[in-house]
Amino acid sequence: MKTIRSRALFQRANSFIPGGVNSPVRAFRSVGGDPLFIKQAKGILLEDVDGNKFLDYVLSWGPMILGHANSQVLKAINCATKRGTSYGAPCEGEVELTQLIVKTVPSIDQIRLVNSGTEAVMSAIRLARAYTKRDSILKFEGCYHGHADHLLVKAGSGVATLGIPDSPGVPESFARHTLTAPYNDIKATEKLIHKNAQKLGAIIVEPVAGNMGVVPPNDEFLEWLRMITKKYDILLIFDEVITGFRVHVGGAQALYKVIPDLTILGKIIGGGLPIGAYGGRKDIMQMIAPAGPVYQAGTLSGNPVAVAAGLETIRLLKRPGVYKDLEKRSKLLAEGLGEAAKRAKISFYQTRVGSMLGGFFTEGPVTDYAGAKKSDTARYAKFFHGMLNHGVYLAPSQFEATLLSTAHTNRHIQQTITAAQEVFSKLR
Ligand SMILES: *Cc1c(COP(=O)(O)O)cnc(C)c1O
Description:
Layout: H1 4-16, E1 38-42, E2 45-48, E3 53-56, H2 71-82, H3 92-104, E4 110-114, H4 117-132, E5 136-140, H5 172-175, E6 178-181, H6 186-196, E7 200-205, H7 221-231, E8 235-239, H8 252-256, E9 262-266, E10 276-280, H9 282-285, H10 304-317, H11 322-343, E11 349-353, E12 356-360, H12 369-372, H13 377-389, E13 392-393, E14 402-403, H14 410-425
Parallel strand pairs: 3-13, 5-6, 5-7, 7-8, 8-9
Antiparallel strand pairs: 1-2, 2-3, 4-10, 9-10, 11-12, 12-14
Helix pairs in contact: 2-10, 3-10, 11-14
Bound molecules: pyridoxal-5'-phosphate (PLP).
Pyridoxal-5'-phosphate binds at residues 116-118, 121, 144-146, 206, 210-211, 239, 241-242, 266, 276.
């Protein structure tokens, strides 16, 4: 594969941008090699600056569920830009998008739009602390909720107790307010809750974990979280930045029929433009300024172009049959990959919820971060590069999801399976 231009760009980028990228996982560090610079994308095809073409299973990490450059979404964006790109004053599109989300996502009575998932999580935590008048939060190991200080915490191995910061620059005094438990571990979580009930304001969880690879919730995990948080007057926050409008039009909460107090959205609801949102019960949301005392603001929040892209994306997703189709194709791909691995005698533990696919190079089962970390990441790196050489662009990390869009056809999937058969057979 020719990568002359990508390499030249990466070298230049390294002079001006730390590590040459504007978000770390793009840098290919966990699989080795240099990142490819993308020139353009259409449907599920990514084309890099050297002219290499790939079937895309990253989809900008989630937003491009309709594929790239969807003509109807582009039209909505173009129409919006002609009317100006930001007003710093309310516009009709904000009302339409928020109304549509409220109608579609069960837990949301009211919603506030922001500019990224990180910002949405940060704001929701502030709100939860204000509402419950308690400072501590509980998160699960391996769940990612953006890079806000108090969430860059996952704690050490074993039964987690008090948080240890994951990054320099996060004060220990912040991290101390963050408790962590292993995902899917009801026993450990219950212990932590019992011990900290008086100071615990919120539990935040990815209802399907998508940032340690894909790890689905065990039977009853989410239901149990709902029950225990109600019992102790703790707010339950679902981070549906990936799962929202992906695993079901109403998000994971609609799929598993568990209704949190607050929900975080992002990615898909911006149709490929920067956005984030947090919403939930009206009595909680009414605490946000200017309705209430909890301050949160944003120059570009509810941006007219982003809301136009999001609105059109969600409208298209609400057409009948969209999720059934996604499910069919995702199943086809998962089965094909599984058979290919089996034929090559490679241990490949698969997980899947709708169009979120996971595959770990381990015997499995993988139900939490400790299990996910058992995956042979060196083997994943080989698999990744092998697939790349066969024109398939997977996430440059074992601990990310493989995602499908409505633009993936049976032909694309067959092509991908054929590539995987060859790559798996050479992995041993
Ligand atoms: C991507 C992601 C975020 C962060 O969103 P950004 O827009 O990147 O800030 C938060 N939570 C989850 C579950 C995510 O996948």
